[in-house]
């Protein structure tokens, strides 16, 4: 071996030991009892000054064999603040490791300052065998410099279409979509592609318990598609859609059912101008059915989740019950898209507003100017016309006087059975035999009337929010 080769070998050794010196690894272990399922367990670790990256690897006993344990992290700003100042990411049960640096982070985690101090891994035991969960967290801290500049968010456009918008019109969207920033399989660009294929004008990004994807939609949103900020707040007592969030906003998923923390989380969404929607209240998975609050505490209900099924049918029955009791809760739909065979925009929720902006869409939701159809090419134009000639559209209180006539123009639902429904149930039914088709009916009674169109087997093709016959009685 010549002198030069020796020098290179020595240099190589030296570099390797420098790199190794830049990393420290600690293994944190512990035990979670079965009675801690549905609570959250914090595991602290210290991050010294000069740390450039944090890598955490999670392992636990009987994973997938009776035990399931979610994963997330809070930085030294704390884990108690309900606004989530210290929140740095969540991946539920979808990932077993994450990295956070100034420049980038694992999807679902928030890149940026690697603050020195005490960080906390948050573990969310979800199911447990009787002997509990033994966990092991391997934390590697590195002082190696990380390439790339400081993370900069790229938010989606806040308005799509001309400003001011020419007139009110119906816009097609989806209020429940996941990406690989939580447990979906796909990148934002793929979701955008599918939304365009499905003729959508907008959708809301609703990854589980993290705002991470809301920070980057500007990298993928085309000029003619509005992408709204949302989170599917995945609690231990059901899931809800926090829709219309501010930039960076996070919503606390940890409050237990019927506690002030739940009210505060709802209030935080509304303060941002957003909307609280109960998601799929009757689906059957552990901790999925809705017991977090009273149904009437929410602004809306996802009455149709993905391809129409029994739980959605049950939700519609619940919604009818709420309407009959005088609770004007908005019905909306969501594909809950994670991967095939679901489709973004199945169902499609159509809203009437003057502008494709967050404020415009949220206003339409609050005013119930909303109907839902199974997918592209389907439309429902439902109005009530007074003898005096005034026309009222979905979500509104009838204007005018004299006898009222309901009129429904339906496109793309040939073969469906249209039902007009009032507080006492069906008031009129007619088979749709053409597309488009127009159905009219003159005898309407009760406080509201709404439309459902189902196929012969009872599967939903489309439904509208009601038209009302009285103002809400405010006490
Ligand atoms: C140190 O940690 C960083 C970040 O996790 C990693 O990329 C690098 O390979 C590690 N270096 C060594 C020598 O293990
Ligand atoms: C994960 O933990 C289990 C037991 O708790 C152990 O058998 C397994 O080897 C661990 N896997 C890794 C990759 O550390
Ligand atoms: C870390 O997570 C990624 C997915 O985010 C996965 O592909 C990889 O296999 C995981 N690493 C280990 C060691 O399990
Ligand atoms: C969108 O449609 C195009 C053309 O049919 C197709 O090639 C593409 O795969 C579709 N994208 C998605 C995400 O479904
Ligand atoms: C956001 O990403 C798009 C697409 O990559 C890019 O054209 C645009 O300049 C980015 N905007 C910001 C503010 O970084
Ligand atoms: C919620 O679902 C669980 C099963 O997952 C069931 O035992 C429980 O009775 C349900 N509660 C309500 C209020 O529907
Ligand atoms: C939907 O629920 C109603 C009761 O609310 C029931 O009569 C009907 O059979 C159900 N239809 C389907 C398709 O599940």
Automatic annotation (TrEMBL):
Gene Ontology molecular functions: 5'-3' DNA exonuclease activity; 5'-3' RNA exonuclease activity
Highest taxon above the source species: Eukaryota
Keyword Transmembrane: no
Keyword Signal: yes
Signal peptide residue numbers: 1-21
Keywords: Signal
Polymerase/histidinol phosphatase N-terminal domain boundaries: 173-237
Protein name (Swiss-Prot/TrEMBL): Polymerase/histidinol phosphatase N-terminal domain-containing protein
